[in-house]
Amino acid sequence: MEVTWDIIELISKEVDVPYTITKNVVNLLDNDNTVPFIARYRKEKTGNMEPEKIRQVKEVLSEFRTVKQRIVSVKEMIKKQGKLNKVLNESLSEAVSLAEVEMLYAPYKPGSKRSLAERAREAGLEAPAEKILNNNIEIDLTSLIQPSSADYSTISDVKKGLQHIIADIIAKNTAAKENLNSICKKSYVTLESTKIKKAAPSTSKKEPKATKGKKNETSKKFIDENKFQHYFQFTCNIKTIKPHQILAINRGETNKILSVKIVIPENVKRLYTIFCSQKWIRPNATNPVRVLIEECISDAYDRLVAPQMSRQIRSDLTKNAEKASIDVFCSNLKNRLLVSTVKHKVVLALDPGFFHGCKLAVISKTGNVLYTDILYLNSSKPNSKVSEEEKLSGIISKYSCEIIAIGNGTACRETETKVAKLIKSKHFGGTKVCYCIVDECGASIYSVSPVAKEELPDMDHSLRGAVSIARRLQDPLAELVKIEPKHIGVGMYQHDLSDKKLKDALDCIVGECVSFVGVDLNTCSEHLLRRVSGLNATQAKNIIAWRNKEGKFNNREQLKLIKGLGAKTFDQCAGFIRIISGHQDTNEDSEEEPSSFPKAGSKRKANPREGTSKSKKVKLAVDSSVNPLDRTWIHPESYHIAKKFIKKTGTVCDDIGFPTFITKVKQFMKTTDIKKLAEELNAGEPTVKLIVDGLLQSINYDLRDGYEKPLFRTEITTLNDLKLGQTLTGRVSNVTHFGAFVDIGVGIDGLLHISKMRPEILVQKNRTQLELGDRIEVKIDSLELKSSRIGLSLS
After folding, report:
1. Class of domain 1-113
2. Element containing residue 779 per DSSP (H, E)
């Protein structure tokens, strides 16, 4: 018997999902299906489950399987020692957390001190102890005395040995533990923290001797104790304590600033004692037996159960707080990645600086580098005949720049002030220019990365940062996939989290964002392809190599020609990859189909620059004709259903994505019941809805168009311009559990505390909390100019 629990049942309870649905999701995950694929194309089996929930099932499944594996290995190690008794075996089989498993294994680890109960068992006291507890039989203690033993040579020693075994059995009993958990959930259990009193400094003039191998105290990183002042005398119910409070207290404890403890009320012990007495003490038990068992119950609670419960509570609080912190990071990252693109605009990017100047890059509408330079906008440039402002004006005029993207790093505020004044004074002539502050997190890391060296080999690394700033404004997702996710998002106490857990969660988010947005197979970069559901770095590289050699893809089926890309991988990635040949020349508002779009079944001729195929025999195995359905997010496995539906609407596949086609589909759906339609097409309702939604999208559809857009400005507001009660438009720059930070354009983010968020505002946005990137109206509630603190409320 490895474990006594059903892993599906535990996951179902943990994530609050029906058992059958949980089982379906686990089976899909076990068959190597990715989260994006399951979320979009297996809705019938998941009950329309959101990707966040599927990801949660995946994480909890991994946790419980890790526990199961650990139980098996621990049992094997204890068994080799010859110490795997019945009670321990059952306790391990019922354990559902790593903390519980490690607690049970602790006395049996090599080099560890044996438990008191283990020593008593080795002395042969287990059988009489079980008779006392299970049968309430009175034992003659003198018969158990071992004169040759130093530990059990007296009646008192024997009695203690029996008590240790009985207490151990009671403490490990499943029913008793479940009862205790139930009691604690209903009780007022608190977490308390207090400031640790530092020892008074020594008055001795004698210099302390340097300790070999230890760092000098003065070389250690300074920790500001005042950051933890809210927790110097802190008490909170464990049911209401916030995740950020747990993480702050844990950090204070780690830095030896705070002393922390769990306080369990006395009533818990009383109720636990009543339950244990009713379970183990029979009505006809003699008084000595009754007294002995009662003492054992009290000892079990004080010495074993209460400390274990305290450790478990701390462990659970930390685990939940870390999960909440990762969730915040993931949510912020997702909203940062899905910021709307700025299409068809020439961008001039400024990476601000003082004495070393502002690095400048001009990027074309398609992301190509047109010009780079360094401007000294915030310092004087020696021997300069032309002012830096005139030079900037000349560059903007020459390249018809429409947007100035300013990185939010050092000298951002000074650069913004300069640019805003130039715009206000119409320094750029008739050119209409606005500016936007761009988050440059990770730009410096990108600038010295192998990716940047490969993309911009002849460019100085300092200028590459400016190129990245411009491109992340034009297409944030395409640029940010080149950077490690943890360098992009804004989180909460992320430095205290497990690197692996954080990386896994963030990688999942990036993969979901890239997959759901979709990539054009003929224009996307290798870095984007790596993040598509089902693909890895090698497969992405092989796809790009095939495209460079053979020319552009005509259809999704040609992916099967790629080395190392099998049927399973094709199933996972096909729906997230689109073939939109000629879409750059398409006018969305045009009623006519552009000539650049090939007809269905036609074979597009390769551009001479694309190369020519040298593998004609291989190509014969896969149809190379154009399939208009490849423009959509409809999966190839559902093409036969999509074709039946298109026939019903009276349209043709060649028109997919164009206004006339979309209008006809809309008109058809006005008089059609989706449930009845699904029955007619012999398909699941979610699949049919997915097909309809896919066919209602224009060729240039972009999921990100529905998300918040960058905030463009033409003038600047300073901190001194602010007044109490003033209403401003701001953008949410970070979200935590205690509130949100909002960029209101003064160089310092204001804090919108959770208590200042009006529920009706959130209802209008169809959600329960604000998200990174949200544009909101806020009112200045408090203003501390000296400390540069701004308090906000939702207007």
Report:
1. mainly alpha
2. strand 775-784
DSSP E strands, 92-210: 190-195
Residue 751 pairs with which residues in a beta bridge? 741, 791
pLDDT in tens, 435-458: 999 988 888 899 999 999 999 999
Residues 6+ apart with CB under 8 A from 245: 231, 236
Residue 496 in tokens: 């205290």
Determine the residue type at 439.
D
Report pLDDT for 731.
78
403-407 and 347-351: which strand pairing? parallel
Q: What is the DSSP string of 547-606?
A: HHHH-S-SSGGGGGGSTT--HHHHHHHGGGEE--TTGGG--TT-SSPPTTSPPTT--PPP
Fold adopted by 536-705 = DNA polymerase; domain 1 (1.10.150)
pLDDT band at 108 (very low <50, low <70, confident <90, very high): confident
CA atoms of 496 and 319, how far apart (whole Å): 12
Rounded to an integer, what is the distance from CA 353 to the centroid of its chain? 32
Global pTM value: 0.81
Domain limits, the chain:
1-113, 347-474, 536-705, 717-794
DSSP-derived letter for residue 339 is P
Let me know: does 661 contact 651? Beta carbons within 8 Å. Answer: yes
Please name the CATH architecture into which domain 717-794 falls: Beta Barrel (2.40)
Fold of 347-474: Nucleotidyltransferase; domain 5 (3.30.420)
Q: What is d(CA 385, CA 309) in angstroms, rounded to the nearest whole number?
A: 75
For residue 583, what pLDDT is reported? Answer: 44
For residue 175, the one-letter residue type is A
Q: Report CA dihedral (478, 484, 486, 488) to the nearest 10 degrees.
A: -30
Q: Examine domains 347-474 and 536-705 and report if their fold is the same.
A: no
| Helix (H/G/I), strand (E/B), else coil: 29 | helix
Instruction: Select from 670, 558, 652, 552 the least CA-distant residue to 599.
Output: 652
Q: How confident is the model over 177-206, as pLDDT tens digits?
A: 999 999 999 999 999 999 998 766 555 555
Report, as an integer, the average pLDDT of 406-416.
Answer: 88
Residue 617 confidence class, pLDDT cut points 50, 70, 90 = very low
Tell me the HSE value of 750 on the side-chain side, using a 13 A CA sphere: 31
CA distance 445 to 485: 12
Whether the per-residue pLDDT at 631 is higher than 90: the answer is yes
Q: 258: which strand partners?
A: 195
DSSP 746: S
* Local confidence band at 615 (pLDDT 50, 70, 90 cut-offs): very low
What pLDDT, in 10s, does the model give residues 275-285? 999 999 999 99
- Alpha-carbon distance 237 to 434, whole Å? 51
